[in-house]
Structure formats: C-alpha cells, structure tokens
Design a protein that fits this description.
3-stranded antiparallel beta sheet, binds zinc ion, 2 domains, globular
C-alpha cells in the first residue's frame, strides 16, 4: 500500500468529526453570548456565491432603497429625484429563494426603487399607477445576524410595496401618503 496515493487535502473521518464538534461548540458559545445580549441568534448562512449588483442606496428624503447607477434619480415620493445617503449596498440576485432569502424583489423602471413584485397590483408608484419591474430578479436576505458587512431594519412597506429603512422614528415618505408602514420579514442587506 502506498501512502502517497491519498488525494491532496483529504481529511480522515476522525478529523471531520473533530472539526464538526468544534464548530458546534463554537456556535453554541456564540449563541449563548448573543442570547445574553438580547440579539437575534440565527447564524448567517453563506450566500453561496450569489452575484450582486452595486449602486443601491438609501434615499434621505423617502427612506426607500433605490438604484443610483443612472444619471436620472427616479421619482421620489418626497418630490424630485431620490437623494443618496450613507452606505453603498451590493444586493444579491439571480439565486433561488430560501427560508432566509426572499425572491420577487425588482427594480421599478419608473421610480427606481426596489419593490416586491409578488402581489397584484404592484403597489403604488410615485410616478403614477403601480411599480413596473425591469431587469434583475433580486433575492434578498432576511432574519439573520447582522454582520460587519450588512445592515438590518430594512422592511417591506405594506402600503406602497417598496423596501424602506425602518430604523428611524421618521418613516420617510410613502407614495400612498404619510410614512411607510413595515410588514413581514426583517431584511438584512449586504453593503460594501
Ligand atoms: Zn426618495
Ligand atoms: Zn415605482
Ligand atoms: Zn410606503
């Protein structure tokens, strides 16, 4: 028997069991610490290499997530175009829906906001009528631990169907009138 025939990088079963035990121990320890701190305790799964699109930003006027990659800044419910502020988001698309990532999020070609296209009619667009989907199919992560490269408090607005930041007392400007109104999942969106 030649010992050199073992494929490079292969591990013995004993090594795998040891690794798994250590991983579980570490996870339990981290979960314990998170529970003590009152934080969400669901481990963040790896987004197995899903492609992302840059240039998604928070609008300081309406608090919506909008695409800032064009010269035109869409239609802001606060009047004029959206006004980018803060983080630069890189949002995952073209992957399958999972228990912690929701599909059917789309770019509206009329107002340039991110909206949920799973209902009919498709919300309320500040440019008139409902939102109009174009381009990529986004699959957005929700209900997981917020890491260094992600921000929580992003929610679906049940009135206009856009993605908006719910972390402030002021709920921005909803095209349906008043501020946005959160419903459903707590999204955790990756940024650069
Ligand atoms: Zn805006
Ligand atoms: Zn729209
Ligand atoms: Zn709204």
């Amino acid at each position: 028997m030649c010992l050199d025939s073992t494929p490079a990088g292969s591990k013995s079963p004993k090594a795998d069991i040891y690794h798994e035990n250590m991983t579980n121990l570490t996870r339990r320890t981290l979960l314990g610490a998170a529970v003590a701190a009152g934080a969400l305790t669901i481990p963040a799964p790896a987004r197995a290499g899903a492609p992302t699109q840059n240039y998604w930003r928070y609008c300081d006027h309406c608090h919506e997530m909008f695409f800032d990659g064009y010269a035109g800044k869409g239609s802001c419910p606060g009047g004029g175009g959206h006004v980018a502020s803060g983080l630069y988001f890189a949002l995952p698309h073209s992957s399958v829906e999972t228990p912690t990532a929701q599909a059917q999020w789309r770019y509206c070609r009329k107002c340039q906001a991110m909206f949920y296209n799973g209902y009919s009619p498709a919300g309320v667009c500040p440019a008139g009528g409902g939102h109009a989907a174009q381009g990529l199919n986004f699959v957005l992560p929700h209900d997981m631990v917020t890491g260094a490269g992600s921000q929580s408090e992003w929610r679906y607005c049940r009135k206009c169907h856009v993605m908006f930041y719910d972390g402030y007392e002021n709920k921005g400007r909803c095209p349906s009138g008043g501020g946005h109104s959160a419903q459903g999942y707590m999204f955790v969106l990756p940024h650069l």
